[in-house]
UniProtKB/TrEMBL annotation:
Species annotation: Tenacibaculum piscium
Protein name as annotated: Glutamate racemase
Biochemical pathway: Cell wall biogenesis; peptidoglycan biosynthesis
Signal peptide: none
PROSITE patterns in the cross-refs: ASP_GLU_RACEMASE_1, ASP_GLU_RACEMASE_2
Residues the record marks as active site: 77 (proton donor/acceptor), 187 (proton donor/acceptor)
Matches recorded under SUPFAM superfamilies: Aspartate/glutamate racemase
GO molecular function: glutamate racemase activity
First-level EC class: isomerase
Family: Belongs to the aspartate/glutamate racemases family.
Catalytic activity: L-glutamate = D-glutamate
Amino acid sequence: MTPQKNKQAIGIFDSGIGGTSIWKEINALLPLENTIYLSDSKNAPYGQKSTEEIIQLSVKNTEFLIKKGCKIIVVACNTATTNAIDYLRKNYTIPIIGIEPAIKTASIQTKTGVIGILATKGTLNSSLFEKTTARIDTKIKIIEQVGNGLVELIENGNMESLEMTVLLQKYVQPMIDLQCDCIVLGCTHYPYLIPQIKKITGNNIKIIDAGQAVAKQTKHILIENNLISTSEKKGNSIFYNNKNKNVLDAILKEYQNTTIQFLDF
Ligand code: DGL
């Protein structure tokens, strides 16, 4: 075990603030770890970009976190994972954890045999997503819905706006009409919409995201690589953001040991 490395931070990145939904799960499961979170809000949304652009941005984010001395990278973005994780794993030796829409979980839990997935165009069009879907029982009907406009509203802190309600109604109602009983949130920004989605679905539809699974996988890989923190003190978290920091401020207000820094990135 290399004690120096154990003290280093878990690096986490997303196209914006959405990956803080993953950071919260990691922070809850691994409170002794230091974390560095990179929110590339200036370039959000990634979901409309080409695979080449998403790879380029993911490389830039990964190199930033490696330069900061991170011991592991968590790609807290479905769009970056589904488009760039193969490239990242081929080109960097640091352990890299990704997040993919939890359609396997939904396919096990559904009783009606109909599941909905809300994700970005970049995720739904990716070959990795196509491969994952091909492994799902063909008897399960999967309704794919691109969440156009949702990330932009969340980045601006408009989670509860009328515009958001109208968009969610438009995306979720057709799933309800087709008897879907599980909705997969295939974008790390979307857990911030769960209260609004529940206003439309009521409590009869399960909303599934992969946040806890990613935190558990991060812990597992840290242990496997002898990288888990041996500290007895709660860790510190630094959040780098290259756009407006107000929404991050609001998200993190109840968390101690967190600092937000503006980054010209
Ligand atoms: N949080 C990102 C994801 O999980 C948002 C994608 C975007 O920037 O469009 O896919």
